Amino acid sequence: MSRFSGVYILIFWCAAASGGLAQTTAPTTAPPSGIEENRRRGSSRLEQFGGGRGDSSAQPVFAKRGALAFKQRLSRDQKKMLAPDAADLNRHAALLRKPNTGLIKLFPDLDCENDARVVRADETCLNQIPTSAFYSFREREHTTDFLADIRLKNDVLVSDGLLMQSILVGLGEMPLENVVPSSEGMKFLTEFKPGETSEQALEQTFRLIKGIEADGYLYRKTLPARENSTYALRVIAYRGKIVQTVRGFPFNMLEGDNRIDVTIAFRLLKKDQATGVYTLLWKELARRDAPKIIFPKRNKRQNIKRTR
């Protein structure tokens, strides 16, 4: 279980907790290598929309100041390692001069930051750059894993941030410069209507973990990472609060995070075979105001029964 799974289980509940949703079945075909592990992690994260018991007033100990408390300072050497190569910056200068674009390195997630209670001190993690495997297009920076729009695990791209609905689609060899909201493969992504209630969001999450086929494309939360391939991603970062308390002081875990609905196209330019690091070029296609998730109301009698 990832370090945030318990938080998701405590925070959100809906139809699944009361038997209102049928259990989903496994896909009939085996997923690509590396996806099954991410599916299991994603399955725990879907509980944010109701797979477990609890409510938005759950208060496990976590940190100090919401999203801002998780931002880590990097050393000069770490920043240099995380910066894209000068040759790549020059090669894609025309696109990068446009607003809402970027060129980043995405490092593999080595499980060095997946449990706040455990500090790994082996050589692998001592050399790992904090947050290097997790990126937020909304914030335009590397970030902590539970606020990331995209992360890299076992050569698999994953989008499963906290209180988010996200959809990935592979567009193949389509040049990034040619991708627009009306491009082939974008229809489902642009027309997708996020659930307004936690029950609806949970049902959509179940379907996206399995994968939804539409117009000859597969839409899901995990896809294999491939060099010289173009992808599109839509992230709906629901507005809301996740209240935690530390030493008696409450705080919102999402404070300081830009909660919007954004559509991104990106291309994996290359992979460093020695380190597993991908260079990723991206541009924003659209943004909207994100909806606020609606949770079912609970009366005092329900709360009393659930605590027995």
Structure notes:
By secondary structure, the protein is an alpha+beta fold. 21% of the residues lie in helices and 25% in strands. The protein contains 9 helices and 14 strands. It has a 7-stranded antiparallel sheet. A 5-stranded antiparallel sheet has the order 3-2-4-5-9, covered by helices on one side. It starts with a helix and ends with a helix.
Summary tags:
9 helices, 5-stranded antiparallel sheet, alpha+beta, 7-stranded antiparallel sheet, disordered C terminus
Short description:
With about 300 residues, the chain is an alpha+beta fold. Helices cover about 20% and strands about 25% of the residues.
Secondary-structure map with pairings?
Elements: H1 5-11, H2 35-45, H3 76-82, H4 86-91, H5 93-96, E1 101-106, H6 123-126, E2 134-136, E3 141-142, E4 150-153, E5 156-158, E6 164-172, H7 187-191, H8 198-210, E7 212-214, E8 217-220, E9 222-224, E10 229-237, E11 243-246, E12 249-252, E13 260-271, E14 278-289, H9 300-307
Antiparallel strand pairs: 1-14, 2-3, 2-4, 4-5, 5-9, 6-8, 6-10, 7-8, 10-13, 11-12, 13-14
